[in-house]
From TrEMBL, chains A, B:
<protein>
    <recommendedName>
        <fullName>S-formylglutathione hydrolase</fullName>
        <ecNumber>3.1.2.12</ecNumber>
    </recommendedName>
</protein>
<dbReference type="InterPro" id="IPR014186">
    <property type="entry name" value="S-formylglutathione_hydrol"/>
</dbReference>
<feature type="active site" description="Charge relay system">
    <location>
        <position position="224"/>
    </location>
</feature>
<dbReference type="GO" id="GO:0046294">
    <property type="term" value="P:formaldehyde catabolic process"/>
</dbReference>
<dbReference type="GO" id="GO:0052689">
    <property type="term" value="F:carboxylic ester hydrolase activity"/>
</dbReference>
<dbReference type="GO" id="GO:0018738">
    <property type="term" value="F:S-formylglutathione hydrolase activity"/>
</dbReference>
<comment type="similarity">
    <text>Belongs to the esterase D family.</text>
</comment>
<feature type="active site" description="Charge relay system">
    <location>
        <position position="148"/>
    </location>
</feature>
<dbReference type="InterPro" id="IPR029058">
    <property type="entry name" value="AB_hydrolase_fold"/>
</dbReference>
<keyword id="KW-0378">Hydrolase</keyword>
<dbReference type="Pfam" id="PF00756">
    <property type="entry name" value="Esterase"/>
</dbReference>
<dbReference type="InterPro" id="IPR000801">
    <property type="entry name" value="Esterase-like"/>
</dbReference>
<dbReference type="GO" id="GO:0005829">
    <property type="term" value="C:cytosol"/>
</dbReference>
<keyword id="KW-0719">Serine esterase</keyword>
<comment type="function">
    <text>Serine hydrolase involved in the detoxification of formaldehyde.</text>
</comment>
<feature type="active site" description="Charge relay system">
    <location>
        <position position="257"/>
    </location>
</feature>
Amino acid sequence: MEKIAENRCFGGRQLRYQHRSAVLDCDMTFSVYLPPQAAQGKVPVLYWLSGLTCTDENFVTKAGAQRYAAEHGIAVVAPDTSPRGGDVPDDPQGAWDFGLGAGFYVNATEDPWAKHYHMYDYVVSELPSLVADACPVDASRTAISGHSMGGHGAFTIALKNPGRFRSVSAFSPICSPLACPWGEKALGNYLGDDRDAWAAHDSCALMRTAEEKLPALVDQGDADNFLQEQLKPQLLAQAASSAGYPLELRMQPGYDHSYFFIASFIGDHIAFHAAHL
Amino acid sequence: MEKIAENRCFGGRQLRYQHRSAVLDCDMTFSVYLPPQAAQGKVPVLYWLSGLTCTDENFVTKAGAQRYAAEHGIAVVAPDTSPRGGDVPDDPQGAWDFGLGAGFYVNATEDPWAKHYHMYDYVVSELPSLVADACPVDASRTAISGHSMGGHGAFTIALKNPGRFRSVSAFSPICSPLACPWGEKALGNYLGDDRDAWAAHDSCALMRTAEEKLPALVDQGDADNFLQEQLKPQLLAQAASSAGYPLELRMQPGYDHSYFFIASFIGDHIAFHAAHL
């Protein structure tokens, strides 16, 4: 693994690494912000999963999270959103909602995707191991968050790995891939026609049977173009209600799906995670 | 003039406008952040001038200034850095330090640049008039700041227009285009061989004879790759010292030329301007 960038930021260090991924069978990059407190010892860590079309850089350059991470002494890890590279297949029509930039944080079982598209294993297993080797983080104090497709990733990964995270949050998450066009397309291609396999990556389905109940926060803008057709936070609120899951869903008036929305509330999310880390 | 984007951000509005520029003879875009306070009446305004290669978007998406602008109730205007469009000439070799993205905030007198490259008049006259028409800003309370080439622009424009600004600041400014390769190339091409004409756009030369003395703040990273050859803040400090100009120059250890540096200290700069607005 090679460090390919380092920039001082809010008294800490914004780092970027490149490495060969065994589970994705390609070269990958990811970013880590280490707060000033990391110079004195291990710090808790927040994983951030980005949305469709993003790389590891969108969150790092646009969210303004470093200020809050420095205040609270939390490291922030931002992976890419899919495998990358010359032999990694993409959507045949080059669509932006599937293939490159759209790994959906699952392990594909269908060809041609099954060779590289294992973002679930990458985020759950390979990446934390690389981070633990390179950075002073305390893996016993881990939280997870994300945006849109990455909000889906954050909730499904938290729900599927009890004992692993202290808290979970999301901005504008895809709440049920079983119930929206983005999910139908992606999971149908990656996992095939068996919708039971999709349910294992559906936050609403997972929440209904969750034994561990984590502190959970969701922010959703009510001017988000994708709200009605793709995101459907009411389904997550219903699942949380029926399961007694402690989800706080905040509808934010006038906000859209952009990083201007994330920047406005990322401070709240980092403070929320800090309270549980 | 047409509003081409609007995003809610920190309770205010991030706006983007497109318009035909009379002084640049081309179509231009610029961005304005209006804080929540602008819904109740006119607010003071900070002009931000960006550096080489930037458009109006770099600062808007990367600096995280909206949080502080919302806290202090200040509008922030970010113009582009050069004229744009099909018939606007660029560096013959396509270099990134001259031509498109590198207007240097002067009025070119030499062909082929003289037809479009009038960024001084654009920032000093045309843009404030457009902003005043479209946005609730109080032009009597105006400050100016910028980065690198835009720090040069902020200081030269403030020094050349006494009575116009309440305060001036910069990140990593080009302090003396008379004394660095970027300045030699740009002003030589835009203004010709007469170095007296360059001195009218040299912060150090202007500061030595300034009658109005504005509160002035400069942050400079000591790990900035351009520090020794291009930026030379010691020349500005010497000019300020000899002129009795109230410049605070802060060398920031470990910081480079990037927006990670700007993001780390833009809160200080907006608080500095707010104290004088």
